[in-house]
Specification:
Helices cover 22% and strands 30% of the residues. The two termini are 35 Å apart. The protein has 16 helices and 43 strands. Strands 13, 14, 16, 17, 19, 22, 23 and 25 form an 8-stranded antiparallel beta sheet that branches. Strands 7-8-6-9-10-11-12 form a 7-stranded parallel beta sheet, with helices on both faces.
Amino acid sequence: MKKIHNITYSLVCFLLISFLYSCGDASLSGNATQSGAGLTADIQGESSSKDRLNRAEYVAGEILVKFRPGTDATTIAAINSAIEARGIRQLGRVGIQHIKLPGGMPVEEAVSRYKEDPNVVYAEPNYILRASVTTPNDPDFGNLWGLNNTGQTGGTPDADLDAPEAWDLSTGSANVVIAVIDTGVAYNHPELINNIWTNTGETSCTDGVDNDSNGYIDDCTGWDFIGDDNDPTDYNGHGTHVSGTIAAEGNNGADIVGVMWDARIMPLRFLGVSGAGDTADAIVAIEYAADNGAGVINASWGGGPYAQSLYDAIEYARTKNVIFVAAAGNETNDNDVNPAYPASYDLPNIISVAAVDDDDALASFSNYGLTSVDLGAPGVGIYSTVPVFSYGTPVILYSSDFNSDAAGNLPSGWASGGQNDTWSVTAGTGVGGTNSLEDSPAANYVSNTLSWAGFMTPISSVKDNRYMLSFQWKGYVDPVTDDYLNINYSLDGISWDWIDWTNGDTGGVFVPVSSDAFTVAADMFSNFYFGFGMESYASGNYDGVYIDDVLLTRESISISGYSYATWSGTSMATPHVSGVAGLLLSYTPGLTYSEVKNIILNTVVPISSLSGKTVTGGRVNAFNALLGSTSPAAPSGLSASAASSAGQINLAWTDNSTNETGFSIERKTGAGSFAEIATVGADVTTYSNTGLAEQTTYTYRARAYNASGNSAYSNEASATTALNAPAGLTATAASSSQVNLVWADNSGVETGFRIERKTGAGSFAEIATVGANATTYSNTGLADQTAYTYRVRSYNASGNSTYSNEASATTLAASSGGGGGGGGGGCFIATAAYGSYLAPEVNVLKDFRDDHLLTNAAGRKFVELYYRYSPPIADYIARNEGLRTLTRIALTPIVYSIKYPSVFILVPGFILLTFMRRRFTLK
């Protein structure tokens, strides 16, 4: 067998030399490294024990800095630039610099940074200063939690309108007219008298002449649409309470203050003493307000179904640029399901208001509606102005004890009717054994009764009087089955309805009852009839009622004084919003109704109790509304620059506004149209637009915005994105003189790639270029056991991309004796041919090298020459599939001759012997 190996060795050497073949270890592991690992660091926050700046309020994003005398502008600019701040202005002769900080930088950090600079004398926040009058001197201001909630009622501090903050900007204006369409106004109340509207078109209030030709004579302070006269005095108190919340005079040292310290309340009365009124009077009141200069209508009332006429009146007010603020209602209803008008009319000038309490909870009584109620406002425990009433001597309109009426008959002048009617006078059943009026004499009332008994002489209505009905009754009217003793009214003496009621068991004794319900009838109608009724249902039949000592009177009402009271309701929430609307019109005159509404709705404070319950999910906030009422100043100095990273352009601009909500950024490509691509918050002055196409020109513009609208646009700025850089570069040592590179091609428009290399800590230098779409390169002719670092970038006619990551590899050790040792060197041509140094054919050749070539001088010389000249040939073969195939065909016999030497000798020998035998036989 040894002889066979020697023969094989000689033949193989011949073939190896013919193919310039030799082999070695082409391991890809262990020596290649890739640069670009990230760095991490733990950042420790300030110790909680470290001194802090005074926490007084200051302007966010701004500080004031005093530089040392002699500090030049270049130095100041450099100090500002170090933290990306900019100077806004120099303040007067004292030389203070007003500095704008970059977005997101805390004021405390900036102050600390500036103080560290030796050129700075001091740095401090731009503190907010407030005039003393922003907290009014009205002694009961502390009772008004809705304006300034300090927790004084046990509620949540700051659950309020932020009125003192708003008053820094405006306390109102006599030029703003708010119509209170309600029960009238006690316009001589000391807190209101100076804030009542005066019709300057009327030259006299007593001459009986319509001087301004508006259809109303001597309407100097509004109009009473119930009495159709020029005295809209409030004989209920509701309209006065509403007016005090809107505009009780502020800072006058007396009692309370309204949302507006100064305004003009237009009193328009269409609700009477009882608080009731009709749609017709509401319509003409709305038209009056719209025609006579009101900018806001407060409508703290509602009721009745959808009325197109009332809708049309509010729409008319819209055409006169009037905002209509309406109470959502107090029935705990979802107005989306059960509309409450006028608040639920779908008109753009209506703001529908729910009530919240001093904890920012939705009031237990308040209506709500995700699509029909706009926002909430303080409406629980609201302290405001009211009149004090006195009543004149009662005028008796009817009186009877039924003692002069015969038993078994109706009282004189009475009639009865209805279902199961048995009304009559009975003897011995009244107070003290006298007569009484009974519904079911000598028996229980029966089921399904709906009967009436009434006095058939109409009662004349006198306006501004209180009507009182008093009587005594005994009996048992079952409350469990909803049976009632009704107090009835009628307009014609034929059709009767209840206006009040009572029921229960009096325990066999007479009890007194008093009701002022007929005041509603007197408010609504010129005359009415009164009486009683019995109403029962299918079960629970009892003794019924005995009525005695009936007395109906009326009393004139007058205002004897002025006071304050605490009331609750969406009626009390609504004037808070009307007051904010008035502040907006005083702070920014000329706003349209839609602008007023949008500003109020867009500047609410979100609260959880209104989330999913109202359109905005928030509570009205006066301060936010005023801040958002003027359009912000436009940004300037917009710049655009392509970032080094692929597909990114960085924008920067100057923020010239102090009241923006944020900035809107728009972009266009080439000659296309601008479209908004992003918004950023207030005080932000940079934006990075990523994910862009490479080598594309984009143009940008920006503008500030807030609730009132947008600023003008900044200048336009353009930039062209960079060529995309290759990525994922790897470097692998292939031998003692070769490193192979591989990368990802991220560009679609490159001409090719530039490859740079450095040795150790040296400098990079370009060593080669390859064409477009190439992703590999083999760097040959290198020194053994040397570290090389590479980077790659794409290029085309417009320039270069940024560099890829850096990647390093160390070449392998050269074989001992100049020809490689066992495990040194590389099977370059075989690896190129078979595609991997791990291929079994390559391993056969490696073993042959180590066992036979490197064991003698001639073999070692051959390996040395091969290592010197074969790498370029191997590179060329690797890039050409045809050459790889031919090389494999050429190498395969060699591989098998090494692996199976017996077969290599015996098969050719057998073929030779067979050939010779046949030859000799033929001869």
